[in-house]
Amino acid sequence: MKNIKILLAEDDTNLGNLLCDYLKAKGYHTVLAANGEEAFNLFAKGTYNLCLLDVMMPIKDGFTVAKEIRKINDTIPIIFLTAKSMKEDTLEGFEVGADDYITKPFSMEELLARITAVLRRSSGSAEKQEQTDFSIGKYTFNYKKRVLEYDGESQKLTSKENDLLRLLCLNEGKVLERTYALKAIWEDDTYFNARSMDVYIAKLRKHLKQDNSIEIMNVHGRGFRFLVHKKD
Predict the structure, then answer these.
(1) Are residues 163 and 210 in contact, defined by beta-carbon separation less than 8 angstroms?
(2) Domain of residue 139, residue span
(3) Which of 193, 168, 195, 198 has the alpha carbon at shortest distance from 182?
(4) Measuring CA to CA, how many Å separate 117 from each of 87, 113, 202?
(5) Shared-domain flag, residues 53 and 116
(6) Is residue 90 classed exposed, middle or buried when 0-12, 13-18 and 19+ CB atoms within 10 A define those classes?
(7) Domain final residue, candidates 128, 150, 167
(8) Of 212, 226, 229, whose CA–CA distance to 166 is shortest?
(9) Residues 168-215: tens digit of each pLDDT
(10) What's the confidence (pLDDT) of residue 79?
């Protein structure tokens, strides 16, 4: 529990601070966001184990934030906090990828029990996010050593190449959103950084060109899709 980091998005200042202080007292490293946009920006720049999202928030509501989070991470647990109890809202919450749903007013003990249960179910997904060794077609990639190996020959990667290749591997088959990758690696999605990332994508394609089953596709307006085609 000492290493568990929670992103809490709640626009009610009093409730947000109360929940944040309670979770910290229970040993969870908790970061509080006052609205949906702030919550997503914090998520894109950090590493979290669970998201607690209030549904009714200004700028971006909880459902919108959850949809954006699911585009870049489909494993992190999400629990919605809401004053609504309508069946339609509950269904919408699960449709956008919620792991659980708790209706206000709720007790702190109930919330803690939900968090504990959801984290227990998702422990396997957390292990995936810690992965450092990857098999990419005929290549092997060691993130810790920053080494890409093919047929006994090793290529030392730069730190940016290394971080970018790991993000692609963790999202194999899915779209790696450009904005997320920029904020995660360059810490800002400026035009200059975006052009820089394109250069590093081109470098990775060259590093991986020995195996034609590997493809880094451009997804127009969104980002990149990393594919390793299975050969018959």
Answers:
(1) no
(2) 131-228
(3) 193
(4) 22, 6, 43
(5) yes
(6) middle
(7) 128
(8) 226
(9) 998 888 888 888 888 888 877 788 888 889 999 999 999 999 999 999
(10) 93
8 A C-beta contact, residue 132 and residue 142: yes
C-alpha 11/C-alpha 198 separation (Å) is: 37
Residues 176 and 220 in one domain: yes
Give the 3-state secondary structure of the chain. CCCCEEEEECCCHHHHHHHHHHHHHCCCEEEEECCHHHHHHHHHHCCCCEEEEECCCCCCCHHHHHHHHHHHCCCCCEEEEECCCCHHHHHHHHHCCCCEEEECCCCHHHHHHHHHHHHHHCHHHHHHHCCCEEEECCEEEECCCCEEEECCEEEECCHHHHHHHHHHHHCCCCEEEHHHHHHHHHCCCCHHHHHHHHHHHHHHHHHCCCCCCEEEEEECCCEEEEEECCCC
| pLDDT tens by residue, 107-138 | 999 999 989 888 877 665 555 556 789 999 99
Tokens (6 digits) for 191? 């035009």
Read off the pLDDT band of 38 (50, 70, 90): very high
Residues 142, 185 within the same domain: yes
What was the pLDDT predicted at 159?
87
What pTM was computed for the model? 0.55
Residues 141 and 62 in one domain: no
Both tokens of residue 115?
């968090």
> pLDDT of 140-158, one tens digit each?
999 989 999 999 999 999 9
130 contact partners, CB below 8 Å, separation of at least 6: none
